[in-house]
């Protein structure tokens, strides 16, 4: 199944779920993902609106817009299924006296997330692991060109009810090469609805070398089942995008127990 009908079918399942359960932690925004999973039989949609990247390389300036989607399904116990993709992307390329643009969809990934039984209360430690397989089914300008396997983990410390610190570690294996990511994040709540954080992303690519991004973001909760977010990262050193920014919305859909 191609990404568009797959994501559309899962989105329809999300939207057709009639009633609500207690809300979970969302994976958006920031590096890594929540150290909790969804309750069994519940769904969440986390949608970019979109993400923007700017990168200059070899005399070309590329601007990319990506409407990235993640659909999460609680399988019961400490396990969760995730399906992710980008049904719409746009590339704007300028350089050498020429201009080019392209639109299309990206690759699709399927993953399993496992969360530790940590309580998530103040003074606690918790962690989760996520394994993904990304299939080479995107359009030429927006796909990896080969199947990719990823394994990541997020570790979280909550010194009190208002602060949380996380460390995200991940490895992507693509075309026989590994890309490593290590990203600490420091977050703080402001009242019941606002959360702000800062982060630093250290990335080592086997082909292109090292990259360091730094930035932060905000999340605003509306009710118990909706979250809006905004974030931005700027390249501090090395290769990679010079600027990344995005808006997003996360929605939780569940059933009453």
Provide an overview of this structure:
It is globular, with a radius of gyration of 18 Å. 5% of the residues lie in helices and 63% in strands. With 257 residues, it is mainly beta. It contains one helix and 13 strands; from the N terminus they run H-E-E-E-E-E-E-E-E-E-E-E-E-E. A hairpin with a 2-residue loop joins strand 2 and strand 3. Strands 1-2-3-5-6-7-8-9-10-11-12-13 form a twelve-stranded antiparallel β-barrel. The chain has one domain: Lipocalin, CATH 2.40.128.130.
Strand order of the biggest β-sheet: 1-2-3-5-6-7-8-9-10-11-12-13
Arithmetic mean pLDDT: 89
CATH topology assignment: Lipocalin
Task: Specify the CATH architecture.
Answer: Beta Barrel
CATH class reads Mainly Beta
Q: How large is the count of helical segments?
A: 1
Quick recap:
By secondary structure, the chain is mostly beta strands. The chain is built from one helix and 13 strands, in the order αβββββββββββββ. The protein has one domain (3-253): Autotransporter beta-domain (Lipocalin).
Itemize the secondary structure elements and their pairings.
Layout: H1 3-16, E1 43-57, E2 60-76, E3 79-95, E4 98-104, E5 108-115, E6 124-135, E7 148-158, E8 163-174, E9 177-190, E10 194-205, E11 209-222, E12 226-238, E13 243-253
Antiparallel strand pairs: 1-2, 1-13, 2-3, 3-4, 3-5, 5-6, 6-7, 7-8, 8-9, 9-10, 10-11, 11-12, 12-13
């Amino acid at each position: 199944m191609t990404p568009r009908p797959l994501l559309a079918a899962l989105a329809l399942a999300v939207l057709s779920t009639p009633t609500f359960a207690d809300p979970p932690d969302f994976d958006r925004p920031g590096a890594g993902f929540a150290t909790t999973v969804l309750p069994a039989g519940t769904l969440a949609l986390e949608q970019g609106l979109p993400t923007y990247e700017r990168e200059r390389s070899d005399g070309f300036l590329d601007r990319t817009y990506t409407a990235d989607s993640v659909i999460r399904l609680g399988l019961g116990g400490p396990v969760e299924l995730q399906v992710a993709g980008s049904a719409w992307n746009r590339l704007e390329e300028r350089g050498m006296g020429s201009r080019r643009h392209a639109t299309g969809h990206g690759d699709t990934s399927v993953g399993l997330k496992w969360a530790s039984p940590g309580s998530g209360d103040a003074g606690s430690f918790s962690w989760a692991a996520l394994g993904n397989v990304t299939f080479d089914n995107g359009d030429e300008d927006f796909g990896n060109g080969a199947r990719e396997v990823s394994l990541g983990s997020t570790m979280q410390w909550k010194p009190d009810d208002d602060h949380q610190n996380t460390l995200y570690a991940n490895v992507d294996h693509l075309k026989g090469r590994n890309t490593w990511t290590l990203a600490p994040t420091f977050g703080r709540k402001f009242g019941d609805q606002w959360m702000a954080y800062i982060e630093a992303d250290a990335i080592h690519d086997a082909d292109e070398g090292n990259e360091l991004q730094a930035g932060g973001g905000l999340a605003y909760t509306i009710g118990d089942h909706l979250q809006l977010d905004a974030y931005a990262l700027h390249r501090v050193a090395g290769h990679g995008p010079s600027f990344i920014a995005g808006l997003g919305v996360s929605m939780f859909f569940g059933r009453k127990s």
